[in-house]
Amino acid sequence: EEEEELELEEENDKSDGEGELIVDEEQNIGYDTVCAICDNGGEILPCEGRCLRSFHATIEAGRDSLCDSLGYTITQVNAFPNFYCENCKHKKHQCFACGRLGSSDESSNPEVFPCVTANCGHYYHPKCVARLLYPGTDPKQEAMRKNIATEKTFV
C-alpha cells in the first residue's frame, strides 16, 4: 500500500505544528468527494463505514469553505488506523427520505436499512422507501415495507 502525502500550505503547517496530512489515495474510491458537513471538496477524510461519507477532518482543511469540520488535528488524523464517523461507530443513520435518525444495528432490530447499490451509502426506513417507490395508496407499498424489514434489503 502506497501512502501519498498531501501538500499543505506553509501557514497550515505552522498553525498547528503537527506535520502533514497523509491520505491513502486508494481509500477515496467510491466515497463521497465532498464533505458531508459543508458539501465542498478539498482535503477530506472518508469514513470507512457503510455510509461512504467524507469530512473535512481538520479546521485547516475546512477553512476555505467555512466548514465546521470534525475538529481533529493532523496528528490525530494520521494516527487513525481506520476512520469511522460517529454514525457508523454507533450504528445510527439518518433516513435519506425523511431525515430522522434510526438504528442501523443489524443485531438489534434495525430501523433503517442501507441501499444495496454499492456506491450509494444512503439509509432508509422501510416505510419511507416503500412510499418513494409506490406513492399514494398503491397496495404494493405495504408488501414492500414488510419485505424490506424482513429481508433487510431493497433494490
Given the C-alpha coordinates, what overall shape results? elongated
Which runs of at least 5 residues are low in confidence (pLDDT < 50)? Answer: 1-29
Number of helices: 6
- Report how far apart the termini are: 34 Å
Instruction: Give the structural class.
Output: alpha+beta
Q: Strands of the largest sheet, in order across it?
A: 1-2
Helix content: 25-40%
- Percentage of residues in DSSP E strands: 5-15%
Give the radius of gyration. Answer: 19 Å
Could you report the average pLDDT, rounded to the nearest whole number?
Answer: 81
Protein name: Enhanced downy mildew protein
Domain Histone-lysine N-methyltransferase NSD-like PHD zinc finger: 32-57, 91-138
Pfam families: PHD-1st_NSD, PHD_NSD
Organism: Trifolium pratense (Red clover)
Topology:
Elements: E1 4-5, H1 10-16, E2 22-23, E3 45-46, E4 54-55, H2 59-62, H3 74-79, H4 86-90, E5 92-94, E6 101-103, E7 113-114, E8 123-124, H5 126-133, H6 140-151
Domain Histone-lysine N-methyltransferase NSD-like PHD zinc finger: 32-57, 91-138
Protein name: Enhanced downy mildew protein
Region (Disordered): 1-20
Overview of the molecule:
This protein has 155 residues and is an alpha+beta fold. The chain folds into two domains: 4-87, no CATH class; 91-151, no CATH class. It is built from six helices and eight strands, in the order βαβββαααββββαα. The strands form four sheets. The chain has a two-stranded antiparallel sheet with strand order 1-2. A two-stranded antiparallel ribbon has the order 3-4. A two-stranded antiparallel sheet has the order 5-6. Strand 3 (45-46) and strand 4 form a beta hairpin. Helix 5 runs antiparallel to helix 6. The longest helix is centred in the last third of the chain and has 12 residues, at 140-151. It is elongated and about 55 Å long. The model is unreliable at 1-29 (pLDDT under 50). InterPro entries: NSD_PHD (IPR055198), NSD_PHD-1st (IPR059153), Znf_RING/FYVE/PHD (IPR013083). Residues 1-20 are annotated as: Disordered. This is Enhanced downy mildew protein. Residues 32-57, 91-138 form the Histone-lysine N-methyltransferase NSD-like PHD zinc finger domain.
